[in-house]
Amino acid sequence: MMNSDVEQSFHQGPWHASPAYRHLVQFYESEDYLLLMLSQFVTTTLENDEASIVVATGDHLTRLEQILQSNGLDVSAQKAAGQFTPLDTSKIMPQFMVAGQPDPELFRNLFGSLIAQTRAEWSSVRIFGEMVALTAELNYASATVDLEHLWNDLLEQQDFSLCCAYPINTFRDQETASMLRDICEQHSAVFPAESYSSLTSESERFREVALLQQKATQLEHELAERARYQQKLSDALDAERSARQDAESALQVREEFVSIAAHELKTPLTSLIGRAQLALKRLRTAGTDEPAKLDKLMESVVTQADKLSRLVGQLLDVSRLKGGKLSIDRVTVDMVDLIHDSIDSAYIGANSHTITVQTPETMVVEIDPIRMEQVIINLVNNAVKYSPPDSEVTISLDWPDGDSIELCVQDQGPGIPLANRPRIFDRFYQADKQGPSSGGMGLGLYISREIVELHGGDVLAEFPDRGGTRIVVRLPLSSASLASQAN
Fold first, then answer.
1. Cα–Cα–Cα angle for 342, 406, 438, nearest 5°?
2. What pLDDT, in 10s, does the model give residues 111-147?
3. Where in the chain is the domain with CATH 3.30.565.10?
4. Is residue 366 within 8 Å of residue 332, measured between CB atoms?
5. Strand pairing category for 23-28 and 189-191
6. Looking at beta carbons, which pairs linking 219-227 to residues 24 or more positions away fall under 8 Å?
7. Are 143 and 102 in contact (CB under 8 A)?
8. CATH class for domain 223-323?
9. 166's torsion region: left (phi>0), alpha (psi -120 to 50) or beta?
10. Worst-scoring range by mean pLDDT, 18-22, 335-339, 466-470?
11. I need a labelling partner for 115 at 20 to 30 A (CA). Which of 184, 247, 268, 358 fits?
12. For the structural domain made of 4-198, what CATH number should be given?
């Protein structure tokens, strides 16, 4: 039975009273209101000797027939005569829906035939359907609008009228609000839900419209504010994620550094302490009877102390680079002399390697000699470290063009795996170690690149087909070097 409050609230001429609307839509808030309107729609249609086709859920069809019978209509007789045709959505929709979308051909064949058959017996056919409401409730926006399009196409081909109904609470957010606009555009008339339809005067309706406009404005403002807060939250989450990744990366770098530094600093320090203790013991017990052995011990002490000093120096340079405090002091020097002096200081004890130098007789440039010597020593040490014993390391210096000089250090080592080549100048990166002479903290190439860039130059790694690694340093020419080149 129908709720009496709903019956009392319905005062205006119902949409079913006029056949002028070919395709209308009714929104509703309660099912009682929907069934009241639907029962009046069917009653008026049958009383006017028109045919009524109702496509609704099984529950709505059952309740509708109960209302019609309570109003004195012989529903069974109307069905038998083909004047009243109830269709259960659960049985009818699978006949034309494919993968959640309406199939145009199946739809036309199904409803086109049904309408033509009914029109053969009755002069006018009026259809009520809530199939589209079911797809809308499932948020099938495209299926819902496509289904309305199919009804409109059929209306152009055959003579009938159609009423669709949607529960208004289906449209709760921005996405469904867009679907609501599309649905309204597909209908020739739109009827609001009962909270508006039940208003008894024009003045009440105007007030309600003003309140609805205010609510719409407020909602738009709230949605805009929510969008801003969501964007801020998203930005904050991105920043937090980035900060966490940076922290994790920094932590990983720190752990790698601690591990490498502990190992690399401990090795020469242990050797240094051991050699010094042994030398002291022999001095105390043997006097000066073993000068050759003591000389060798002290040479080892000096070698390990030098290695330790270089490792500590690299750490200090990294700290200066990070703080932006590493600077260069340019002076005019002969690059050829600097290369030979640097080789003499590089990698003490690497006499099994052949160092080949290919340079012009002289090349005067404006550079920081201390820092550039550090670059040359790092590159030579790196080449020796990763080259097999008794192999050749080649150092070349040239003017490739009129604007720069080029320093190259070529080794005959195994080269760098393709996947690791982009990391060759990263802090703490070390290639696979080759033999016991390998060591270091993976800072030499990193520091060298930074020093070269402070000079306005660049450094890159090449990997010849014949094997090995070739480090190329390019520096811009100064006025002094240009004068030297001209002479």
1. 45
2. 999 999 999 999 899 999 988 777 766 656 778 888 8
3. 331-486
4. yes
5. parallel
6. 223/174
7. yes
8. mainly alpha
9. beta
10. 18-22
11. 184
12. 3.40.50.300
Tokens of 178: 């867009």
Residue carrying structure tokens 């002490």:
301
Instruction: DSSP letter for 81, please.
Output: T
What proportions of the chain, in percent to the nearest 5, are helix, strand and coil? 60, 15, 25
User: pTM above the 0.70 mark?
Assistant: no
- The pairing of beta strand 51-56 with beta strand 84-88: parallel
Tell me how far apart the alpha carbons of residues 205 and 191 are, in angstroms, rounded to a whole number: 14
Residue found under tokens 């508006």: 196
CA-CA distance, 198 to 204, in Å (whole number)?
10
Q: How many Cβ atoms from other residues are within 10 Å of residue 126's Cβ?
A: 22
Please state the rounded mean pLDDT for residues 309-330: 65
User: Exposed, middle or buried: residue 52 (CB in 10 Å: 0-12, 13-18, 19+)?
Assistant: buried
CA gap 161, 187 in Å, rounded: 11
Which residues are 161's β-sheet partners? 126
Rg, C-alpha atoms of the chain: 45
